[in-house]
Amino acid sequence: MKDIVWSEILSVGVGEIDEDHRKLVNIFNILNHAVMEGESPDYLAATLEELINCTVWHFSHEERLMLKHRYPGIEEHKAEHRELIKSAEELKREILQGDKPVADEHIEFLERWLTEHIFTADMRLGSYLSRAM
């Protein structure tokens, strides 16, 4: 599995959100390398936990900006945030239970989980905030 390489295509046009996204991409890449290098399930779970914790913080950051600037799509965006965290927590539980090893399919899931949210909901938010801020 390849790393996610940060580029302008991932930019939503709001510096503080882009900075958060760069951090999330970096943690994803650490997790990706850990899987490729065969790190222990505990290490993988800890790295995934870090990704989840940073994502939760990032989502609250976005939601604060949405409230401040009266983003009309806030409820839909927040619902997507909740679903993303729920799916990542389920993956973490699977890893910790040791039911199955972390595989490429999990990493691909997390890559889509991260990039699709940026390319869809966050691009709409970035477009709105670029005008509102």
UniProtKB/TrEMBL annotation:
InterPro entries to which the protein is assigned, alphabetical: Haemerythrin_Fe_BS, Hemerythrin, Hemerythrin-like, Hemerythrin-like_sf, Hemerythrin_metal-bd
CDD domains in UniProt: Hemerythrin
Keywords: Iron, Metal-binding, Oxygen transport, Transport
GO molecular function, one term: metal ion binding
Limits of the Hemerythrin-like domain: 13-125
Family: Belongs to the hemerythrin family.
Name the record gives this protein: Hemerythrin
Organism from which the protein derives: Sulfurisoma sediminicola
Organism lineage string: Bacteria, Pseudomonadati, Pseudomonadota, Betaproteobacteria, Nitrosomonadales
